[in-house]
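Retry 2 of 3 after timeout on previous attempt. Resubmitting structure tokens to design endpoint.
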């Protein structure tokens, strides 16, 4: 009987420990089940320094184009690496999201980030990949 009680106590401790460890890593899994949730996650990553689960957010062929005096194209891995380094860094800007086009499997949105001395516009294309929305491309411009 004592062995049975010890077994149940050990099983209960393992279950509680597993639940505690899972709850201890919030942000590692993003909810990308809708385009709106994906665009909100993207905005949080870009402006609030949220980096947990950032790999899930971008499509495998993601690219970012930055328009300016000299144009630049960043790969998926370059963007993810940069965003992980920016973990916890919040941008001092106001944001506005405008959905330009939306269908069952894709969305195009304009994100405007207004800073004190300039404005960044980010045209973002999202695609639905097997029920999970991903950012497929981003084109940035500055005024």
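Retry 2 succeeded. Sequence:
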């Amino acid at each position: 009987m004592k062995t049975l009680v010890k077994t149940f106590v050990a099983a209960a401790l393992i279950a509680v420990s597993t639940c505690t460890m899972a709850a201890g890593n919030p942000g590692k899994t993003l909810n990308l089940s809708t385009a709106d949730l994906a665009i909100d996650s993207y905005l949080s990553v870009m402006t609030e320094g949220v980096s947990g689960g950032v790999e899930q957010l971008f499509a495998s062929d993601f690219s970012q184009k930055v328009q300016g005096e000299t144009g630049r194209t960043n790969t998926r891995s370059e963007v993810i690496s940069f965003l992980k380094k920016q973990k916890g860094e919040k941008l001092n800007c106001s944001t506005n999201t405008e959905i330009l086009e939306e269908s069952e499997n894709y969305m195009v949105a304009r994100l405007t980030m207004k800073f004190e001395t300039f404005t960044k516009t980010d045209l973002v294309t999202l695609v639905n990949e097997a029920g999970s929305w991903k950012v497929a491309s981003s084109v940035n411009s500055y005024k």
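Attempt log closed. Strands lie at 58-66, 72-75, 94-102, 106-114, 119-129, 132-142.
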